[in-house]
C-alpha cells in the first residue's frame, strides 16, 4: 500500500525522477518487479546478473533467444525507445509477435536493458494524462560503457559477495538469516532478488 499512499509521495511518484536522475538504475530488477540500484553498485550488479557476458557474447553462446536479441538490438541501436514504438517496430500486436513482457522483463533482470524515463501522453491542451509510457535504454546508454563494465574484472560471484557484505554492514543481522536461503537458490536471477529483497522482506515481515 506504500506505493499508492494518498497523502505522501512514494516509489510510484519517485520512479520517473529517479530513473532519469542518473543516480540509480531502475527497472524490473528484482523477482520481475520494479526496483532501484544505486549508481555505486550498478557495476557489481550488472557483472553478477550478466554472469560475465556482454549481450553479444551471450547470443554467440546460444544463451539468448532471437526475440531477446531483436529487442536488445532495437533499443541499443536507437539509444532510447518507448515501449509503444518498440512494440510497433517489432510487430508485437494482435496477430503478430507475442511475449513482449516476458522478453523485456528478462532483459531487465539480466541488466541488459533498463527504464530511462516515463513519457506521458498529452491532451489537446498540452496537459499530461494517463499512465506513463516506459522509455527503455541500455545501462551503457545512461551511465556509460566504462562504468557498467568496471566490475568485469571480478568473478560474478565476487560481485555477489560484495553486495552481500554491503547489505550486512548497513543492516547487521537482517541479511544473516536471509543469506542461508540465498545459498540454497541456484538460479542467479532469483539469487540476486533475494540479496536485495532481504531488506524489504524483513521490514514488511513477509
Per DSSP, the total helix count is 11
Distance between the first and last residues' Cα: 14 Å
Helix content: 40-55%
**Estimated share of beta-strand residues:** 15-25%
Rg to the nearest angstrom? 18 Å
N to C succession of SSEs: HEEHHHEHHEEHHHHH
The chain-level mean pLDDT equals: 83
Largest sheet: 3 strands, antiparallel
Strand order of the largest sheet: 3-5-4
**Shape from CA axes?**
globular
Secondary structure: number of strands = 5
Secondary-structure class: alpha+beta
Q: How many domain modules? A: 2
Low-confidence parts, pLDDT < 50 over ≥5 residues? 181-206
Pfam family, one: AlkZ-rel
InterPro entries: AlkZ-rel
Describe the protein in words.
This protein has 206 residues and is α+β, with helices and mostly antiparallel strands. The chain is 51% helix and 17% strand. Strand 1 and strand 2 form a beta hairpin. The protein has a three-stranded antiparallel sheet. Strands 1-2 form a two-stranded antiparallel sheet.
Fold blueprint:
Elements: H1 11-20, E1 24-30, E2 33-38, H2 42-50, H3 55-60, H4 66-78, E3 80-82, H5 83-89, H6 100-109, E4 114-122, E5 128-137, H7 139-143, H8 145-148, H9 156-170, H10 174-183, H11 188-204
Antiparallel strand pairs: 1-2, 3-5, 4-5
Helix pairs in contact: 2-9, 4-6, 9-11, 10-11
Structure summarized in a few sentences:
With 206 residues, this protein is of the alpha+beta class. The chain has helices at residues 11-20, 42-50, 55-60, 66-78, 83-89, 100-109, 139-143, 145-148, 156-170, 174-183, 188-204; strands spanning 24-30, 33-38, 80-82, 114-122, 128-137. The chain is built from eleven helices and five strands, in the order αββαααβααββααααα.
